[in-house]
From TrEMBL:
Single annotated GO MF: heme binding
Name under which the protein is recorded: Globin
Matches recorded under InterPro entries: Globin-like_sf (IPR009050), Globin/Proto (IPR012292), Mb-like_M (IPR044399)
Domain of life assignment: Bacteria
C-alpha cells in the first residue's frame, strides 16, 4: 500500500530549492556550522582535504530527507544504519542526531529573508520525526 503524502514535503522541498538557488554549494555552510557547534567532529574529517567526503555525505543526507518526506522507500533504514556506522567512526548518536538540525539551520541561514514560517513548521515536525529513527537504530523495533 502506498504511503500517504507527507503534508510537509512541499515546504521542505521549497526550502531546499530556494537554498539551492541562493547558494551553489551548501557543503561549506553546513560543515562550518557543524564544526562550530560540534568542534570535536572536525578532527574526524582529517582525510577529507578536498571536501569531497563532506559533499557526498551532505548529498546522501539531503536525499534521505527528501525520501523521508516523500515516498519513504529507504530513508528510515538508512538513517538507522548510519547511526550504527557512524558510531564506528566515533560519532556518538547524540552528535549524529544534531546533523539534521544543522542542515535545517544552514538552509535557513542561506534563505535569509526568504525563509518562511511554513518552512520552519515543516522542518520542526520533520526533525522530530527523523529523530525517532536516530534514537531507535534497532530496525527490529521499527514499526512496519
Amino acid at each position: 500500500m502506498p504511503r500517504a503524502p507527507d503534508p510537509h514535503e512541499p515546504d521542505i522541498v521549497a526550502s531546499l530549492e530556494r537554498a539551492g538557488e541562493l547558494c551553489e554549494d551548501l557543503t561549506p555552510v553546513v560543515y562550518d556550522r557543524l564544526f562550530s557547534e560540534q568542534p570535536e567532529m572536525e578532527v574526524l574529517f582529517w582525510r577529507d582535504q578536498n571536501h569531497q567526503i563532506r559533499g557526498e555525505m551532505l548529498t546522501r543526507v539531503l536525499q534521505a530527507i527528501l525520501d523521508f518526506v516523500g515516498e519513504r522507500l529507504y530513508s528510515r533504514t538508512l538513517i538507522q544504519s548510519e547511526v550504527v556506522v557512524h558510531e564506528g567512526y566515533d560519532v556518538p548518536p547524540d552528535v549524529f542526531r544534531t546533523f539534521f538540525a544543522t542542515v535545517r539551520d544552514s538552509v535557513r541561514e542561506v534563505c535569509g529573508d526568504d525563509w518562511r514560517p511554513e518552512w520552519e513548521a515543516a522542518w520542526a515536525t520533520t526533525l522530530v520525526d527523523l529523530d525517532w529513527y536516530v534514537t531507535h537504530p534497532d530496525q527490529a523495533m521499527t514499526p512496519a
